[in-house]
């Protein structure tokens, strides 16, 4: 198996289709149709990734996402039938790594799942420094003054991408390709929201960032402006 995926969606036809597609790609799949039971399903199934619908009975996907994120950094991909900006941003701010708008092509969804589950095989030892942060790439840890700063895998990937080339200003489009795995135009709000989330954890003062700096009109870079 390539990983365990928990699908949280009350659309039984869609859930069945997702199960067929994901199992066909080698994923072990479990299901939950009720937001109120999603956290328990997450704890019992111990998935490697969660596909989470925004609109759910019992408890909406935004709240479920917050609950899962409060106790785990595993990848969460939101499924939404809405293109409404508020829902998309709320999902990302609540901790989702990515989102897919319904109706979607199965291959597109599988690509998103694979991108979030990709792992390098035994990465070579690599230490990076940005400001007063020390990043152990192979150990997947970030420290300040010896204290570990917990990041989700995606937040870690974003920080590493910037830290490896502190002299480079990254456009949002380049970050979408390097960190999220998008090979085509996509929603740059993914980058903006995750930069805000990353800053809230690594900056001493998120309002005056010194680790992840905005270069107005271009994008982001690591280190001082």
Explained architecture:
- The chain is an alpha/beta fold and 225 residues long.
- It contains eight helices and twelve strands.
- Strands 2-1-3-4-5 form a five-stranded parallel β-sheet, with helices on both faces. A four-stranded antiparallel β-sheet has the order 6-7-8-9, covered by helices on one side. A three-stranded antiparallel β-sheet has the order 10-12-11.
- Strand 7 (133-136) and strand 8 form a beta hairpin.
- Helix 2 (35-45) runs parallel beside helix 3 (61-71), helix 6 (153-163) crosses helix 7 (172-180) and helix 6 (153-163) crosses helix 8.
- The longest helix is centred in the last third of the chain and has 14 residues, at 189-202.
- The radius of gyration is 18 Å and the shape is globular.
- The model has no long low-confidence stretch (mean pLDDT 89).
Task: Note the topology.
Layout: E1 4-8, H1 12-24, E2 28-32, H2 35-45, E3 49-53, H3 61-71, E4 76-80, H4 85-93, E5 98-101, H5 106-117, E6 127-130, E7 133-136, E8 141-144, E9 147-148, H6 153-163, E10 170-171, H7 172-180, H8 189-202, E11 212-215, E12 219-222
Parallel strand pairs: 1-2, 1-3, 3-4, 4-5
Antiparallel strand pairs: 6-7, 7-8, 8-9, 10-12, 11-12
Helix pairs in contact: 2-3, 6-7, 6-8
